[in-house]
């Protein structure tokens, strides 16, 4: 298939002029069009690009009852020549299909995911604004549309891509709490998949954390709560003295594109990076002896999200305020690659 | 609220005559009407009963992206006087709202859940067939309809009830495999909630088990895989000599209505019941020395699901074929209460 095999029904008018691009709230505004591709009993149908709008679905669709749903999160950036770029889209595509397998859903063909996305982005090019910090957030997702209230995989699925313009993500001063009771993933579970059900599972513990004044939770392994795993819906890095630590990916930890890109970049910068489990005890020790310099989350939405302090067993540990934290150095360098302001020596960027 | 506060729009014709009640496939046929009740920014609106049909929903609805969805499963039975009965509906209502809290969703008022259900059942009375084994499966569920691709609870929700006529559930000879790697719930996770995401997480491991010739998985604790927890989407009982064992409910185990009813009934029958964790090692030991007599799943759909054998570490253990297994004795007694063929000395049945 190539992109000519996509049916395109354009909207008669664009809502772009009604959007206040200076005051976007993340994930709330959508562009004029969406991509839909249905899977019926073993076959992917022809993708359709059409106006963004609600769609009809049966009350017994398995996505509602059994959470058979997966998604990805990626971004498109515009350079100074008005060209639109994706960042390592192959990684999101691969991860999407890994999630599909884990949720017993059909894999989406590359032609549908990639050609569909590129075609949609060409149509919505005006929604990608130039200027560092501006981007178009891309949400590919797949839901089980097949009917039936019996707990087994569906026969019908729908793959969709929707797009949401975003400003640079500033989440204020982020304080986190280390999970002592709740957890986000089980051994032998679906934590490594971008499965819908993983996220709503975090809402209640996060609400409790918010009520205590913390914006996010640093998740620990569910069996012992001794190993630090992820921060909210991001991977997490710790800087102790001049070494960066981050947990290895596992069944419980998402293989984040930002995480692995930061690791590669940091190594090339000559920064010492160790991929290994960090224990809560180590972190407390390092916070107490002053060797803990930084903690930051890593993910597509914020790229890097510096953390100013953390709480554990009702004690709050404040991180030092550094002149030139590694977190922000790496963010700057990664953003420069994404916006084509620096040479992409890794070959990560893909022109739309 | 009482049931007069429900808006009712009846279907112009019924499809009941086109349904082959002798050859129903579980969960695939739905009655003429459904109940819908929307929640908008803090307020439950008036419930509506209307023809069963697909509905419109935004592509960014949080149910699709974050699996914010819960459900219940219960049944209506008809006695010989054409009266319709529910079995311990208070338990399902309570559990539904516990699930809601864990998923950071609004609790549904009793008037909406109970009066709504009763009104809907009155309308669909003809769909509940007399005769043991026949029932109307009831699926109350709630989904996050609020839009937005940011991982946080929605502002809008939809509560619905749909109904599906069912024959007695016979699943053939059920062989199970004991989980050595995969698992269904984490410590500090959502295993005790009837959250949609728990179920699709089981699809892939169950598919692998099916390919190996096993119909279901007996789940073990995810940390050590040494404790026996649930069977498929049922609670599980083991009979060793003349004692029944079943795991205590926990964060990882659903508090099943059938499980607790069987415990109460068995105790009243003078059967020894111990609620405690059963170890895989114990089970193997008991299978080897011949003291393991029965294993059965317990849940609303099948009531009791006898298991004929299990596999562990590539070895298959066959269970003895008993004359009068406790599983079937208890099933018979529970069914007699549900169909009003025996006196309900527990006060479990509720007339619609
Ligand atoms: C649980 C979780 N961890 C980590 C990440 C970061 O992954 P990525 O860098 O690919 O966005 C995400 C997604 O954003 C996530 O959902
Ligand atoms: C995971 C799980 N365990 C056990 C059960 C049995 O619960 P109940 O007896 O209330 O149907 C169910 C639901 O049917 C379930 O989903």
UniProtKB/TrEMBL annotation, chains A, B:
<dbReference type="GO" id="GO:0052655">
    <property type="term" value="F:L-valine-2-oxoglutarate transaminase activity"/>
</dbReference>
<dbReference type="InterPro" id="IPR033939">
    <property type="entry name" value="BCAT_family"/>
</dbReference>
<comment type="pathway">
    <text>Amino-acid biosynthesis; L-leucine biosynthesis; L-leucine from 3-methyl-2-oxobutanoate: step 4/4.</text>
</comment>
<keyword id="KW-0032">Aminotransferase</keyword>
<comment type="function">
    <text>Acts on leucine, isoleucine and valine.</text>
</comment>
<feature type="modified residue" description="N6-(pyridoxal phosphate)lysine">
    <location>
        <position position="194"/>
    </location>
</feature>
<keyword id="KW-0028">Amino-acid biosynthesis</keyword>
<keyword id="KW-0663">Pyridoxal phosphate</keyword>
<dbReference type="InterPro" id="IPR043132">
    <property type="entry name" value="BCAT-like_C"/>
</dbReference>
<dbReference type="InterPro" id="IPR036038">
    <property type="entry name" value="Aminotransferase-like"/>
</dbReference>
<dbReference type="InterPro" id="IPR043131">
    <property type="entry name" value="BCAT-like_N"/>
</dbReference>
<dbReference type="Pfam" id="PF01063">
    <property type="entry name" value="Aminotran_4"/>
</dbReference>
<comment type="pathway">
    <text>Amino-acid biosynthesis; L-isoleucine biosynthesis; L-isoleucine from 2-oxobutanoate: step 4/4.</text>
</comment>
<protein>
    <recommendedName>
        <fullName>Branched-chain-amino-acid aminotransferase</fullName>
        <ecNumber>2.6.1.42</ecNumber>
    </recommendedName>
</protein>
<dbReference type="InterPro" id="IPR005786">
    <property type="entry name" value="B_amino_transII"/>
</dbReference>
<dbReference type="GO" id="GO:0052654">
    <property type="term" value="F:L-leucine-2-oxoglutarate transaminase activity"/>
</dbReference>
<dbReference type="GO" id="GO:0009097">
    <property type="term" value="P:isoleucine biosynthetic process"/>
</dbReference>
<comment type="similarity">
    <text>Belongs to the class-IV pyridoxal-phosphate-dependent aminotransferase family.</text>
</comment>
<dbReference type="InterPro" id="IPR018300">
    <property type="entry name" value="Aminotrans_IV_CS"/>
</dbReference>
<dbReference type="InterPro" id="IPR001544">
    <property type="entry name" value="Aminotrans_IV"/>
</dbReference>
<dbReference type="GO" id="GO:0009098">
    <property type="term" value="P:L-leucine biosynthetic process"/>
</dbReference>
<dbReference type="GO" id="GO:0009099">
    <property type="term" value="P:L-valine biosynthetic process"/>
</dbReference>
<keyword id="KW-0808">Transferase</keyword>
<keyword id="KW-0100">Branched-chain amino acid biosynthesis</keyword>
<dbReference type="GO" id="GO:0052656">
    <property type="term" value="F:L-isoleucine-2-oxoglutarate transaminase activity"/>
</dbReference>
